[in-house]
């Protein structure tokens, strides 16, 4: 009975759809295949049904990606390339669309799928995070960290690969955990183009162990979203009457200065007040309390005008500005105190001398009887 039902269902599938009124039949595409053409990349390919008549109509194909990320689109070609994380498999379906004047007809779907990448449950890495950085001569570095899977044996060795466009490369230098498993990787220079907008960086981490098959893991990153912006350059800060004036240069980047925004972190060192100001230009003027000393730091990020925001840059070095008037008055009081104390001491000494108090206060040490008599005694009487 079951077999019969399945057979019936299959024949139904194979039968073309007959739109009402028109004598046109729409047949599903044939030989639908899915091929992994690069890391995290699938080539979907099919052929027109040889039985399909075209006459005065247009043939297109409706493609529906079911997993890992649902997506639907139509194309007049018979192939299409998709980038997706493939570790949990991939499935899609396609059907023929026949467009005749204002009539649109569609065939049944044909389905294709890729199985999940092999490996034991829990052996995949988790918590992958990656950051890129534009280095000075227009190169981009890539740094990733991850955690070993809960079920990964102690002897697991992980390997990280990145793919950007057609270039795939393995990590040249890893950092390991206490079990000597790789958990961190740095590419000091990559083929990532710093000026591109919205391009994807594919990261693939597989592994090997004597005790278990390690299931690979893949993740796609928008290159702009994981870029850690460089620090603003040439920051100069000055005081002009009651205003603080700051200017700086945009960070090292192929993007124009209009593409950046800044945070200005100001601390009044006298009152302890902290302020973070968002600034969209390269200079800044602010009324401040001139009796206070301030510390200033600036950091940068891309604004949303040119591309997706990345990570904030590190803070710049601290710049101090202004004189703390409180410190000054303390110094002044201290000096005054010193001067007056010494004056008083001097005065007291003088007075003591004048009143012959000196000797009374500090009587001379009694000396033993004179060995030498005065040879010329003078009679004062
Ligand atoms: C389409 O054209 C073919 C000949 O080119 C003809 O034999 C067929 O009947 C036509 N079909 C329809 C539905 O018009
Ligand atoms: C579909 O594939 C089969 C077997 O690989 C082949 O014999 C057939 O010619 C293909 N059909 C088309 C339309 O290419
Ligand atoms: C296609 O359409 C034109 C007019 O729209 C008609 O003259 C012609 O016969 C049609 N051809 C077929 C094969 O249906
Ligand atoms: C790893 O990711 C999970 C879920 O995203 C989170 O709950 C956990 O705190 C993360 N662990 C670490 C060490 O970051
Ligand atoms: C920057 O990249 C170019 C080629 O892309 C390479 O020749 C050069 O050595 C790189 N510079 C650094 C500092 O990595
Ligand atoms: C890991 O993946 C790379 C790239 O696909 C492949 O060349 C390599 O053989 C894989 N290693 C293991 C241990 O599966
Ligand atoms: C920073 O200032 C120095 C000296 O004032 C100058 O040579 C350099 O070109 C400046 N850098 C930028 C990026 O403007």
Automatic annotation (TrEMBL):
One of its GO terms (cellular component) is external side of plasma membrane. It is found in: Membrane. Residues 127-225 form the Type I cytokine receptor cytokine-binding domain. InterPro entries: FN3_sf (IPR036116), Ig-like_fold (IPR013783), Short_hematopoietin_rcpt_2_CS (IPR003532), TypeI_recpt_CBD (IPR015321). The chain crosses the membrane at residues 330-352. The keyword Transmembrane helix applies. Keywords: Glycoprotein, Membrane, Receptor, Signal, Transmembrane, Transmembrane helix. It is a single-pass type I membrane protein. The keyword Heme does not apply. It comes from the Eukaryota. Residues 1-16 form the signal peptide. GO terms for molecular function: cytokine receptor activity. PANTHER family: CYTOKINE RECEPTOR, INTERLEUKIN 5 RECEPTOR SUBUNIT ALPHA. This is IL5RA protein. The gene is Il5ra.
